[in-house]
Description:
The chain has 582 residues and is α+β, with helices and mostly antiparallel strands.
Amino acid sequence: MGLISPRLPDLDYEEWQAKPLMQRIKPMAQDWAEGGFGTPDAVLVLYVVKIGLYAFGAAAITALTPGIGSLGDIGEWWTEPIFFQKVVIFTLLFEVLGLGCGFGPLTLRFLPPVGAPLHWLRPGTIRLPPWPSRVPLTAGTTRSMTDVALYVAVLAAALWLLLSPGQGGSAEAGSVGTIDPWRFLPLFAALGLIGLRDKTIFLAARTEVYGTLALMFLFSGPDLIVGVKLLVVLIWWGAAFSKLNQHFPHVVAVMMSNSPILRVKALKRRFHRDFPDDLRPGRLSEHLAHGGTVIEFGVPLVLLLSNGGWPTHVAAVVMICFHLQILTSLPMGVPLEWNVFMIFAIGFLFIDKADVSVGEMSHPVPVFAIVLAAAAVVVTGNFFPRQFSFLPSMRYYAGNWATSLWCLTPEAVAKLDGSVNKVARLPSAQLETLYDAEMATLLSHKVYAFRSMHTHGRALFGLIPRACGEDRDVVTSRYAIHDGEFVAGIALGWNFGEGHLHHEQLLQALQERCGFEPGEVRVVMLESQRFLDPRQEYRIIDGATGEIERGIVKVADMLERQPWDGEIPTYDVVVGAAPHPT
């Protein structure tokens, strides 16, 4: 692995290229199992620098607060409540500017490495309203100057908060006080309005975390501290609850194989059952998955109930190590700043403010109402995943995500490039610009390997023959496969695991602009697994003629398959009217 060149398996390209799709994926999956994505060293340095700039930026802008002291005095004021408030708002701003989740090469975003502001400040780009038929003045999928103004309002409201002084200094509120609660209302209003016009921006701001935490800033003193503690614990518990499934060990195996810290191939092989022939999760991955879930349930409870002393400090160290493990593995999608934020929150809330308890609260009812509302979304989102984003459902690492694969003909790609207002081309074209066609093809298959090593990837690739025709390798001659994540990334300006952003609504918006002919675009869409339901729903849709087929796949079938096994059993199949391509 070089400074700028990715590490790839040693193979004969022409011989490999002549093989069927799933046989091309096989060596890539085997290579991932012992080496991950093969990220160039320069990319790793880029993300380390970005983390450093994030931390420095949050501290530097807080140092501008009147009365708090200089940046060099941060050791004396890092426990000020206003610093925590400004870190929350700074992180929200960092995310909604596209600098956090979904940034850069590990999300196949190269030229440019960020899309969000370039896309959302441009009238005519695609927006996706969540309820266009129910909420007045939100219909349509074209960004207007109103949408641009609302996005600017979000940025301006966040910046205003970051430059705000403190008020009401006291022993509870810190020496410089906290931000005037009324100053948060413009941010809430702007986020709410832009969310009704474009759910992508609302999700990109990570509103389910930072927006909900900011609601607690309407309170002061112990109400603020306890409320934030409860929400942080809810984040851990929500994530743990969503991991009560059979998908998560696959996530652990894939993520640990990608860790740049673990360089010993023999160790990485142990995350799989019997490398190189059986890449299902091994016992080590299963133990880490189940152990991590237990930690996320149990240790935060210790942090919440202990009031300092060695139980608090031991629990804090465990959770800090928990987030450091995720951070240093550089997971695809790169939710890095979120893990840095959680580590900071542990120190601020559960170590420095360990003695602030529920009994000191003045207004417990509204605080608990906010927490219970957020908890209700988590639970409901796991039982009804089609109606809820995986983000407020807190299924971050669960492996149980809505996903899709887009099969595009060259004609469809040309229409995407010529008819859609956007700031970047598909990742395959970006890779050809950076390297060459051969390297772009190899790296695209490395992404296929990443997807196929998850349970949902087994289903998606197994359904491609049903979407594209009886020819088992029709994708070689007619279609190129593109992960829905990256189609959403160029069409919407942001992508971070939210499969609903690249399901029917986006396809319809693209069809309006591109006028795809029947057979030019075939999309396989897989919904998340409902809690305790052993099945997952799928749909196959043609861009021009609509739904071709729907049915279910069983999780048990996915668990028994290898990443390269191909077709998968389907059940309760309903076939539509659209013909398969010839």
